[in-house]
Specification:
0% strand, mainly alpha, 7 helices, 70% helix, transmembrane helix, single chain, DoxX family membrane protein
């Protein structure tokens, strides 16, 4: 029972940035989120579609990771989402002050960039597992559960 609770706590710790916080922020501050997304994606309709896709990923994939339903596939999508948001929204290299100002925006974005990539790496641990089998179980059955709570059908 303790291992099941620990697995639940760890998995929720991985996703809690997205669900509920980021997902609710997108819902309650849709215009602000749309404005931020619109800085990267134009026209506004494309930004809205991208934003809604992100919201869907944040809701459905986090539920998959926590419940264990298609959790490896959900974790892979979330890892890609973390990498994409790092590259699109944490562009530390574009600020021009990375080397010149230790307190500048470039340094702040650099740490956020690394945090996004690190979170994505945590999701990849769900995809590949820690049992030494690597990608084989995922590739054999991409939508199967990894059975994080020891419950097998």
């Amino acid at each position: 029972m303790g291992a099941m609770i620990m697995a639940l706590v760890v998995r929720y710790g991985l996703v809690m940035l997205f669900m509920p916080f980021s997902a609710l922020d997108k819902i309650f501050n849709f215009e602000g989120a749309l404005k931020q997304c619109g800085q990267i994606f134009k026209p506004k309709a494309l930004a809205a579609i991208i934003l809604l896709c992100g919201l869907g990923i944040e809701v459905f994939c986090t539920i998959g990771v926590v419940t264990g339903v298609a959790d490896r596939a959900c974790a892979l999508i979330l890892a890609g989402y973390c990498a994409a948001t790092a590259v699109l929204y944490k562009q530390f290299w574009a600020q021009g002050d990375f080397w010149a100002n230790p307190d500048g925006k470039g340094r702040t974005l650099f740490w956020d960039f690394l945090k996004n990539l690190s979170l994505g790496a945590g999701f990849l641990l769900i995809v590949v597992g820690t049992d030494g089998q690597g990608l084989a179980p995922f590739l054999a059955h991409p939508l199967a559960s990894s059975h994080p709570y020891g419950v097998h059908p």
